[in-house]
Amino acid sequence: MLDTRDEAVVAVPPPLSQAVGYIVVVVIGLVIAFTMVFVTRILKRTVGEDNEKTEMFMTANRSVKTGLTASAVVSSWLWSTAMLGSSLVGYVNGVAGPFWFAAGCSPMIVFFAVLGISCKRKIPEAHTLLEIVRIRYGKTAHVVFMFLCLVNNLFACANMLLGASAAITAMTGMHIIAATFLLPVGVALYTFVGGIKATFLTDYIHTFTILIILCYFSIKAFTLEEVGSLDNLYNLVKAAGERHPVSGNEHGSYLTMTSKGGILFGILHICANFGLVIMDTSFFIKAFSASPKAVVPGYVIGGIAYFAIPWGIGTLASSVVLGLENNPIFPTYPRAISSTEISNGLVLPYFAITIAGKGGAAAILIVTFMAVTSTLSAQVIAVSSIISFDIYRTYINPKASDKDVIRWSHFGVVFFALFASGFSTMLHYVGVDLGWTLYMLGVITCPGIFPTTFTILWRRQSRWAAILSPLLGMATGFAVWLGSAYALYGSVTIATTGQVLPCVYGTVASAASPIPYSLFITLLKPEYFDWADFRKERLAFVIDHTSSTSAADAALEEELEAQHVSSQPHLKRWGRIAAIWAVATFLGHWVLWPLPMYASKYIFGQKFYAAWVVISLIWLWGTLFIAGFYPIIDGRQQLADVFRAVLSGRGKRQNSGSSSDVDSGVEVVGDDKRAQKS
């Protein structure tokens, strides 16, 4: 799709110096990191949040409120590629591109509320998805899903780093490999010290900053004399479609939802993103970290609010770039943007430079840096949890102490930050860029979607179905992907495997084929899993301070079981609410809204286009409130407690276990085999 453009690239001089790039990536990164370290110390002293305890480090004592959960959900999906990629597909496909990008993100975030509350109900002490898999299916399945999750995290990080590094290099002239290795430095530092709570807080700060800048762009674009108004912007985009008709769009117009490229990307994107969400252990960690009453509203509000970011900014940025590409104020004038620049995600940076000059370039630099570091922190803590809980605690030292697990969590943070940077560098040198990873990502991430969902929601999936169906699905997806590239283009290269059709075919095969595989294998040898078996293994770190007798263990077991039983009606109600919102979001964002517009072959008129842009930008400002101000309102009590404690100079000493453990004089440390005693 991109190879039809002129490949002759005349480099656009970076509007900012390399020094600015290093200041943002290194200095600001370290400032944020040390600030988070300081905040972590304050929280430990004032409200007892001790990140030297595993439950606090990994799950924030399962007490994060709705506002911070919603902000963290937006942040988890606020990849640098969300803004760079939505502008890219908007430039290529017109207004359909950003819409399908957004519609490929929100439904699975809301659907994850179903999985999150189901985990809270069935296995409330879990730290990672893989613990659930191991308890239900055993060690072979555990290793298979560990492989799937690690591959998912690795390619997700590579996708972020490739896009962010290319954008930073374009803005500052900083060497792309230096950017790739330096971006994770601050992330690794504050995640190393603060754990998941530092991730939540940093996510919040970064997301708030990004949304302020994006909302500023939504106003600044119309102060540009060449844009001026929505009516003028409409005329500019309409003229661009007449100059360069879009193949597969109705009458070649950029102003239509009847876009073959757009809907193909939508299919590819929603499949890939279901894989990225469901197989990303960071989403499970954030669900486990949220309080039970915050999981569903946090994910539903966050998922719906997020929709506006790729839709609003992608539509505005691509419209301005398409309209002003032949204007002397545009950075690449007199030539059009090359396919290499498009694939590197430079549509959004060129938009910012066009409307705000060096200030716009600096703003995009900050947005890109904060987006990539925020989402990297979630990936780093996710892989760290796999290394510490699912490798070290399971296979190396089953009787690991609290300090042992924390130490291995620290090793995991540093190791994965370095490994992801090295892997991204390798991809860069073999010719892979943001565009390629954006299109093919689903082939890698999708095989585990349905086996994982069945693991949590369907008690009849058999052990061998869980083990074999994702592996067969991945093999099927790769075969279809590479076979389609060869059949359609005559060879298997990076260029041909990055085209839309092979990626769509491969992604759909990778996502859908595990369903019949799982059903068929399950029918051959049916199994029935009792959800109560999840609670036979004590996963939280629990040790009694007053006694080591089996009587104390039994009392603790009875207390936890009583809490579990009493919470079931409440959690089931939240589960029904989550399911309703998941169905409604999918139907709204993927069926009832876009498909009639696709079928109608309607080309936007001036008033309809104006309404389209205005609604997307109002939604964007609403997202600023949800992700920026709602966490402050929701967490005002803890903020007041911390503020009063700091002013009084007195720390508040308390145990750092879960809230129920604090009351019972029990601290979370422990041995996951205790519940298996006879």
UniProtKB/TrEMBL annotation:
The lineage of its organism: Eukaryota, Fungi, Dikarya, Ascomycota, Pezizomycotina. Keywords: Membrane, Transmembrane, Transmembrane helix, Transport. CDD domains: SLC5sbd_DUR3. The keyword Chloroplast does not apply. It is found in: Membrane. Its main location: membrane. PROSITE patterns: NA_SOLUT_SYMP_3 (PS50283). The chain crosses the membrane at residues 20-43, 63-79, 99-119, 140-162, 168-192, 263-285, 297-324, 361-387, 408-430, 436-458, 465-489, 504-524, 577-596, 608-630. Belongs to the sodium:solute symporter (SSF) (TC 2.A.21) family. One of its GO terms (molecular function) is spermidine transmembrane transporter activity. Residues 656-668 have a biased composition (Low complexity). This is Urea active transporter. The keyword Transmembrane applies. Residues 651-678 are annotated as: Disordered.
